[in-house]
Design a protein that fits this description.
The protein is built from 13 helices and 11 strands. The chain is α+β, with helices and mostly antiparallel strands. Strand 7 and strand 8 form a beta hairpin.
Length: 313
């Protein structure tokens, strides 16, 4: 049993609830009176919560997957769940979502490129997880993970350094923001919701604003058949200038961002034969799709897509 979800207290933050489990068998269970008392007690203990975080509690979630399925999992161990919530008020232009997951308590998790940079609270560590250009498998850490995912193109402005400097890296956040060095030592940091609050306050303090050029570029680059030359022409800049700006803001250049967007479109196409899904996503052929999926995920398309879940970005 996963327990009472963070979402039960934070309805305004709910983007979507995603259980990343292989072939999940999920059932909703009515909350007991004890569960509702727990939610109410947590709210009284957290006076910082705005009205938007009013409790809603109709169901909680239970996953029923056995250890054999866990070994077959491609994105995360089935003993855990990954949950996303809408960004806090005032951070919608900057933050794609707030999230938490417990897959790493007892299992591993495969993460594939999504065009985003995350600020991750993992055990007693606060990390900047840079934009990935290849798959990464996180090993067991025995702790809940939670974090804030920055929208594509916002990392450079929020971090205060070019985003490509942390590409494919996990860097202590305190190296970039010395003011957060003591966050993990605070007594309230033992609570997962308090961790998200502390992270949210740190991001709000940065007062980052979207770059209109980068925003326009990202929107154009993620559509099917986008060409960097055409995007640069539409925006009135040279390809070289666009590449430099996008790399500093996102973590990698326009062409790679377009590749990541195509992979996400493939995940979003849930039905049909592989050839049809690859065409719908914008690949030139099934062979092209197979090669790209292997490069970006480390898996074959069949094995990747059977458990892939589209996350916020």
């Amino acid at each position: 049993m996963i327990g009472v979800l963070y979402a039960a207290r934070y309805p305004e933050h709910i983007n979507r609830l995603v259980l990343v489990t292989p072939r999940p068998r999920v059932v909703g269970v009515e909350l007991t009176d004890q569960d509702r008392r727990e939610v109410a007690g947590r709210r009284r203990a957290e006076p910082w919560l705005p009205d938007a975080f009013a409790a809603f509690a109709s169901t909680r979630v239970r996953s029923q997957a056995d250890s054999t399925e866990c070994r077959r999992c491609r994105l995360s161990c089935d003993v855990g769940a990954y949950r996303e919530y809408r960004p806090p008020a005032g951070l919608e232009p900057v933050v794609a979502c707030v999230w938490e997951g417990d897959a790493l308590v007892n299992g591993t998790q495969r993460v594939v490129p999504d065009g985003c940079v995350d600020l991750v609270w993992l055990g007693d560590r606060l990390l900047v997880v840079g934009a990935d250009t290849k798959p990464m498998v996180w090993e067991v850490v025995g702790a809940l993970a939670s974090g804030i995912r920055l929208r594509p193109g916002m990392a450079g402005g929020v971090l205060g350094i070019p985003a490509d400097e942390v590409r494919d890296q996990q860097v202590p956040l305190s190296l970039l923001w010395p003011a957060v060095e003591d966050l993990t030592d605070r007594p309230e940091a033992a609570d997962s919701s308090a961790r998200l609050r502390l992270l949210t306050e740190a991001v709000l303090h940065r007062k980052a604003e979207p770059d209109p050029l980068i925003g326009a570029a990202v929107r154009r680059l993620v559509v099917p058949e986008a060409r960097v030359s055409n995007v640069a022409h539409d925006l009135g800049v040279s390809e070289r200038h666009l590449n430099r700006r996008v790399t500093a803001a996102v973590g990698y250049g326009p062409k790679f961002l377009a590749r990541v967007a195509r992979l996400r479109r493939l995940i979003a196409v849930r039905r049909g034969a592989l050839a049809d899904r690859s065409y719908a996503a914008g690949y030139t052929s099934q062979a092209h799709m197979t090669d790209e999926v292997r490069r970006l995920t480390g898996l074959t398309p069949v094995r990747f897509l059977e458990d892939a879940t589209l996350t916020a970005a």
